[in-house]
Design brief:
The complex is a heterodimer of chains A (295) and B (266). Chain A is mainly alpha-helical and 295 residues long. Helices cover 76% and strands 3% of the residues of chain A. Chain B has a six-stranded mixed β-sheet, with helices on both faces. In chain B, 41% of the residues are buried. Classes of the chains: A mainly alpha (295), B alpha/beta (266). At the A-B interface, helix 7 and helix 8 of A face helix 2 and helix 3 of B.
């Protein structure tokens, strides 16, 4: 792997890292498998792209994407808590609806940002070359977001969120409305995913309605890889693990794409299959291990 | 004071599996009463507690707490004045969080939760003091995850948590039934000392007639969703297992023979 390819993988790892933290929040903390993310990632990209093409500052567009993602998550959480639709189905419904909404927002299936301003411009104006500027910028942002999530999970509200996912009966008996916590948590998760999508769009110079396909699987794979490599004993460790998992996952993909057996090599379109198999293996491995140990 | 007026609760109403769990029950629970509730399986003991806590909503009737109509209040809102300990020792605490984090959650029962830090430094001393009462050495394990504790330790911790913010009423739903006899006794002693010390209004559901007789100052027997016995004060003190059984078989329409005494443990 070349230094250049490594920096590219690092950049992707940081970019998607915030999405992975969002998936960690729903999947691990709230125990709420949330497929909305496949729609909220392009939602963030669309909102940011439209904002930028309308002359809004790139950083401000990130905040708009964050807010849009929060709303998408709130819709899923409301479908689940108030209308009693199964969480998985509720999130699929929002995800499907977002496909139409994203096309409406962009007034088409994609928007190019090639000649537009992005959040990387301030660094580029210092004369930093692009291949260094982007890992640096996205690294700083994703480490900052990780820190904020760790802080939040240690607040009174954050602790109530941890308990809601672990033991809803206990936290209800302590006077917490679990519906509100789920709405806040799923909202926050999708806000982070949309934020990530907005940065991805700015980095790759385009927003596309299909860019979200497989987000949940990539997120899960990264969370699991991170936990396996870095551990999950404390919340702080698990959050850092999610970010590290994202980086390892992107490096693994870059390596996989470089493999050649004779005439065979992987193409980017094979990634979803590989990732799905990786997640299945990771989900099944503990059970197989348990069975073997029970013998 | 809690007023329970003509509470009726069905399960699976209108279906072939319809069960009438509470049949027009009315009770007045006064400040400082420690009520033990006994009855056979399906008598409605747990349902009564769950209707008070808001886990279930009654189909008919009215619940009043200190003059407020709480019939429609959701469970989390009633938690501001209710402390609860469940039969399942795993239900009252959060396994993924540490002992101090669990206690901090209980310390805010009924309060708004904001962005202040969850476990405050100044509260740790209080947590340690509370845990010392248990004599289980938990005061030195504040940073351990609760999932590492045994069922008895978790139930003891739940007792402390349920009374950390003084509850207006403490609901104990067979909270010693899932423990071994020795641990069950320790939890029961802890219950009695906490209730006495804080002067708590308490409702204790139990299957154990002896437990129902030695604890509390009022005893209620439920059968098929109805109150069939309600004894307090001196009368309760003089009550024996024999009296309870006699009443039970009387309602069932059977004669009580002393042989029945053999079926229960002393």
């Amino acid at each position: 792997m070349t230094w250049y390819a490594f920096l590219g993988a690092l950049e992707q790892g940081f970019l998607y890292g915030i999405m992975v933290l969002g998936v960690y929040l729903t999947f691990r903390i709230l125990d709420f498998p949330d497929l909305t993310v496949d729609g909220s990632l392009p939602l963030g990209a669309s909102v940011s792209a439209v904002a930028i093409t309308h002359g809004i500052a790139p950083f401000v567009s990130l905040i708009m994407a964050f807010a849009a993602g929060f709303l998408a998550g709130v819709v899923t959480a409301l479908l689940n808590t108030k209308l009693k639709i199964l969480h998985l189905l509720a999130s699929i419904l929002t995800m499907i609806a977002l496909y139409s909404i994203n096309i409406r927002i962009m007034d088409g299936p994609n928007i190019s940002l090639l000649r537009e301003k992005t959040i990387l411009d301030p660094l580029a104006s210092f004369g930093l070359p692009g291949y260094l500027a982007s890992p640096f910028m996205f690294g700083a942002i994703s480490i900052g977001v990780t820190g904020m999530l760790i802080w939040f999970l240690h607040t009174e509200l954050g602790q109530a969120m941890l308990a809601t996912g672990d033991n809803p009966q206990m936290i209800t008996a302590q006077g917490v409305n679990t519906h509100n916590i789920i709405i806040l948590g799923v909202g926050l998760s999708n806000a982070m995913v949309a934020f990530s999508g907005a940065m991805i769009a700015q980095n790759q110079g385009a927003s596309d309605v299909n860019m979200g396909v497989g987000t949940i699987i990539a997120g899960l794979a990264s969370v699991i890889v991170g936990e396996t490599v870095f551990g999950e004993k404390t919340v702080t460790r698990a959050c850092v693990a999610a970010l590290i998992g994202s980086i390892i996952y992107r490096i693994a993909i870059a390596l996989a794409l470089g493999i050649k057996w004779g005439r065979f090599s992987f193409t980017p379109s094979d990634l979803n299959l590989i990732t799905a198999m990786l997640v299945i293996a990771a989900l099944v491995a503990p059970k197989i291990k348990e069975k073997l140990q029970a013998r | 004071m809690i007023l329970i007026e003509s509470i009726t609760k069905f399960f699976n109403r209108g279906s072939i599996n319809e069960v009438l769990s509470l049949n027009n029950i009315s009770l007045t629970i006064r400040q400082g009463e420690f009520i033990t509730i006994i009855g056979s399986n399906g008598a409605g003991k747990s349902t009564l507690l769950n209707c008070l806590a808001g886990t279930y909503f009654p189909d008919e009737g009215k619940l009043t707490f200190n003059g407020n109509d709480i019939t429609q209040w959701p469970e989390h809102r009633r938690a501001q004045f209710i402390g609860r300990v469940f039969q399942d020792p795993l239900l009252g605490t959060c396994a993924a969080l540490t002992i101090e984090q669990n206690m901090a959650l209980a310390h805010k029962r009924g309060d708004r939760r904001g962005l202040g830090i969850g476990v405050k430094r100044r509260d740790r001393q209080l947590f340690r003091e509370k845990l010392k009462i248990l004599g289980l050495g938990l005061e030195n394990r504040l940073h351990d995850r609760v999932g590492l504790l045994s069922g008895g330790q978790r139930q003891a911790l739940t007792m402390i948590m349920a009374t950390m913010v003084r509850p207006d009423v403490l609901l104990l739903d067979e909270h010693t039934a899932a423990l071994d006899p020795k641990t069950a006794n320790q939890i029961l002693e802890l219950t009695q000392s906490l209730v006495e010390e804080l002067g708590l209004t308490t409702m204790l559901v139990t299957h154990n007639m002896n437990q129902a007789l030695i604890s509390g100052n009022r005893l209620i027997m439920l059968h098929m969703g109805k109150v069939i016995m309600d004894v307090k004060g001196e009368e309760k003190k003089n009550l024996t297992v024999r009296d309870l059984l006699a009443r039970f078989y009387e309602v069932q329409g059977e004669d009580f023979s002393p042989d029945r005494m053999l079926l229960i443990q002393p």
